[in-house]
Amino acid sequence: MLVIYIKCYSLHKETSMSTFSKPMVMTERQKRFRESYVNQISPFYNGLVHIGVMYVAGLIAIYYCASQLSNPTWAWLTIIPVAIAGNFVEWAMHKYVMHRLIDVFALRAIYDRHTRQHHQYFTDTDYTIDTVKEHRIVFFPWRVLIVLGVAGTVLGYIASKIFNPNVGYILYMTMVGHYLIYETFHYCCHVKENWFVRNMPFINTIRRHHAAHHNLGIMMHKNMNLTFPLADWIMGTSDLKRGLVGTLLNGFNEEHVDPKLRPIVEKFRNGGVQEEKVTLEGPILDQQEQKALQS
Ligand SMILES: [Zn+2]
Ligand SMILES: [Zn+2]
Fold first, then answer.
1. Which ligand is nearest to the CA of 211?
2. Cα 232 from chain centre
3. Cα-to-centroid distance, 57 and ligand 1 (Å)
4. Residue 9: inside a domain, yes or no?
5. Which of 18, 83, 182, 217 matches a 20 to 30 Å C-alpha distance to 202?
């Protein structure tokens, strides 16, 4: 069934030209922001060291936990609830922390880095990077992995006491694995177009999903998942009106985009509108637009 679906989907894909495969167009507003942002990156910043340390630390943590398992059998089922919960945490963090200013030290910094920087640097008409220096604007800083490591240790310890040590280690591995998938998928959203990101199931879905999220009109309301758009589908925040399997395997298809959102998306792609109606805190929306985005 799935194979037939994927085949039909890829036949269909070749016949429909997606907005997101058109050449990138950068507005003046975006150009100005990019220039000033890149100029502020420290000369000591190294994009390869940034992601190298993150992946090596994450993989060592997973390897260590795997080496501690002893005959886990049913404990592997831990992955399912933890991965689903992680999908909702990812959605909620993005919607309620990265896009809502909570004026408390660390949370304000997350909002700053995402809404006021990441979303000005990338829009749905130009969402790609050219250099490794730009990893600075794509990947989270190391402290996020450290916070996740501490949270995983606490939750893993509690689970090991309630169930057994295998469950604790698998919980930890799932949390770190989810984080690495998050960073990898997000990176695949912002690299230049290539065969892999265009054709790989799930990766092509999240690339279109996230590129659409970068539209300056809908960014505060739609497409909050960065791995699999499960929570977006359940919570009604996907820009698509489509069933769950179709949403997860949508790829670059734009046929199912909610018709109510289309005029907003189109409007905020315009450079003049961006100059007039977009602030660092997001778009200035009229009542009708707000209603369309909340439904
Ligand atoms: Zn992004
Ligand atoms: Zn966002």
1. 1
2. 11
3. 23
4. no
5. 217
Report how far residue 14's alpha carbon sits from residue 192's, in angstroms, rounded to the nearest whole number: 19
Task: Give the separation between CA 249 and CA 236, rounded to whole angstroms.
Answer: 17
Counts for the chain of helices (H) and strands (E), in that order: 16, 2
Predicted confidence pLDDT, tens digits, the chain (295 residues): 444 444 444 444 443 446 666 678 888 889 999 999 999 999 999 999 999 999 999 999 999 999 999 999 999 999 999 999 999 999 999 999 999 999 898 899 999 999 999 999 999 999 999 999 999 999 999 999 999 999 999 999 999 999 999 999 999 999 999 999 999 999 999 999 999 999 999 999 999 999 999 999 999 999 999 999 999 999 999 999 999 999 999 999 999 999 999 999 999 999 889 989 999 999 999 999 999 998 7
Q: Which ligand is nearest to the CA of 121?
A: 1
Distance 190 CA to ligand 1 centre (A): 7
Ligand 1 centroid to 207 CA: how many Å? 9
Domain count of the fold of the chain: 1
pTM of the complete model = 0.90
Instruction: Identify residue 265 by its one-letter amino acid code.
Output: V
**Which-ligand-closest: CA of 100?**
2
Give domain status of residue 15, yes or no: no
Provide the residue range defining the domain that includes 263: 27-35+44-294
Q: How far apart are CA 63 and CA 252, in angstroms?
A: 35
